[in-house]
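Lecture notes, structural biology module. Today: joint structure prediction for complexes of six components.
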Amino acid sequence: MNDVLKIQTVDESLARARRKQIFLAVTRVLARKSFHQATVKEMALEAGLAAGSIYAYVQSKDEILLLLADSMVGELVDALPEIRARTHDDPRHELLAIMHAALDVIDRYREAFAVLNHEVRYLEQRPQYRTALKEILQPYKEALAVPLERGRALGLIRFDDLPSVVEAVHMLCSGLAMGASMLAKTDKEVYWREIAAMVEGRFFDGGGVSAEVEET
Amino acid sequence: MNDVLKIQTVDESLARARRKQIFLAVTRVLARKSFHQATVKEMALEAGLAAGSIYAYVQSKDEILLLLADSMVGELVDALPEIRARTHDDPRHELLAIMHAALDVIDRYREAFAVLNHEVRYLEQRPQYRTALKEILQPYKEALAVPLERGRALGLIRFDDLPSVVEAVHMLCSGLAMGASMLAKTDKEVYWREIAAMVEGRFFDGGGVSAEVEET
Amino acid sequence: MNDVLKIQTVDESLARARRKQIFLAVTRVLARKSFHQATVKEMALEAGLAAGSIYAYVQSKDEILLLLADSMVGELVDALPEIRARTHDDPRHELLAIMHAALDVIDRYREAFAVLNHEVRYLEQRPQYRTALKEILQPYKEALAVPLERGRALGLIRFDDLPSVVEAVHMLCSGLAMGASMLAKTDKEVYWREIAAMVEGRFFDGGGVSAEVEET
Amino acid sequence: MNDVLKIQTVDESLARARRKQIFLAVTRVLARKSFHQATVKEMALEAGLAAGSIYAYVQSKDEILLLLADSMVGELVDALPEIRARTHDDPRHELLAIMHAALDVIDRYREAFAVLNHEVRYLEQRPQYRTALKEILQPYKEALAVPLERGRALGLIRFDDLPSVVEAVHMLCSGLAMGASMLAKTDKEVYWREIAAMVEGRFFDGGGVSAEVEET
DNA sequence: TATGAATGAGTTTTCATTCAT
DNA sequence: CATGAATGAAAACTCATTCAT
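The predicted structure, tokenised, for the full assembly:
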């Protein structure tokens, strides 16, 4: 959980549970309605809270979007240790595994992500949200940076500006995920396999890990 | 202009002009704000109309989205005669040219299209809008069907279900356009060239018109 | 037609026809909707006029109610010569015949009268309308006054304050008409017959009854 | 309080109090203005609520009319136990006493009733309101049915179709009340005495309870 | 912390009225 | 006089947010 969303909490673990509750509830609501059609009350009730109680975890309706982003990044970050253990410090494997994990999260919370992806445009126009979002995405971007940096150190990949490469990888993930969500299940698998190959080719000048990725 | 949006006006040419005014105004507003942040009043004023006057051309705020779709399809349809003249009944050329024109329209009204693309999900949940949208998109889909049908007649392309191929082509266009809008100008050109090749390969099993398309 | 509703008119007979048109149209509309649910446009169109044209005959929506009253009184007044000829200056006959004619008019334009009867409360709270209404009803009340006065001159009826007796007779008519409109056709005939007897008894034979009436 | 008007409140006793507040406030407002001239805000403020708060107790402005009906019927129903105790199961006494109580309620909330009586026409054209109104009036009509049924069982009164007799009695009450509201206090007493006699004569073929009724 | 009634600013929408043609 | 597009004031209604309990 990111600092941005920490509000005075006596019992941090309870708060964590509540935020998860809210996140899942909002996800469910967004499968039925747009963010603007959905009311705060509706989301609170779906989360098992009273109308006003959600404001103990979020300062405004718009901040619910930040909570969404934070929760998704949280799920991804939780998966990192296992990924790192599994990929044995191989930067190529690690990058692809992280991307795959990201795609999984996005696909799992498809509607919420779609909404988030759309609303982010307008959120970013307000400095406060721009900053908050940046902070929330930080751990995710750092996770992507690790294998990229190591790959550069090992001479497997060449680039000057780390942030922009990270950004490119991220956009690739979200773009793909959104595109993929329009396709049928089988196509999706094929699609991702191609993507893996493409990423590998684009960023690492060939290699052969893509075949393994799909199994994960 | 589609029947769906005809309201009460007798002087159709005035109404046509007003709708265009509104369309352009809304496009401008959506470059600044989300559809839900923007008020009807704001859009009306931007169009040079008084707050309530927009309701002579649209029955509700949501119907403004239909007007957007209708106007975009209108621009595309207006370009068809020239395309048909230029492509001399060559189905491959014609299909690609229409797709290119569609991408142009989408790119020209980028923000409006992004909004439309997002809101359509919710619009389609309401039967009245679902029907209206279908009617509005009809001419565009028919335009795509023409070269596909002719291609099939000439044995250049093989498929059973026309509507689903049309749908696939359409999704390709809108998906690409949305993806492309995230990229820089130069990348976009490359992107489209690849697309053209891909479409050609996918739908016509090889050929060589993609190079010409990009010049258009 | 009463002065109150005369607006600058080049051709008075055309204007008269238009007012009748409007009156009948409004009557038809009020059979379907309440005065407040009905729009000025709707009433104008029903009368075969364009939305704004009705304002050449009426200064505001509320004034349409005056037009209604004026038209009804007009129909009654038009019937007077025939009534007078028929009743040969017999005050009892004449009074009853006028009341009957009034009931006919009210019954013919039932819905319009019901609306008028309801709205009059609020109309009368505004001095301008109070005055206008008074003027409009003037000819009708004068018509009632004639047989009453003659009856008094002939010693058939005794009262001091003419206006309050007229008012009482008028309230009897409108009250009866409204009550009668709830009853079935046959009952109505019986009802009116009883009324006629009652009026005659009350005003012309009863002696002391008239004294009570004027106090009300 | 009828189910039709139950909205979202758990604390029913608070809601009950609020509805009474609103009822009385609206009654006061309708003494000054027509239902259509009065704004929802005005009625809410008169009830000591903020502009939007009234919508926690009523779903639309029109539903305020249902609340009026419901409150009036409520007052009548509250009076029933006492009436039944007082009339010792004498159907004639009981029917007249209920009618008298109904007339009292109508007279107490004269303006509100007049408005209701007028608007009901239009309300009943919409099925939802028609049903709701029926439900609201149910207890009142049942109350009238009791003595009528018992009277029939005792052979004091003869009829085939209970509902239409109930309807007739109800129309008598409301018609009378509306007519009576035009008259001065003293006349009213006389009027009611006559009514009682009439009802008794009409429904019970003679008897002598009318004299007692007026004292109540 | 949790609740949910109350708030009132903000939006959509309607429509009586005006006025240039 | 007639028209009907345009106006904009006014109203109903919604709902994010607050706060006393």
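Point to remember: Residues 127-153 of chain A form the longest helix (27 residues).
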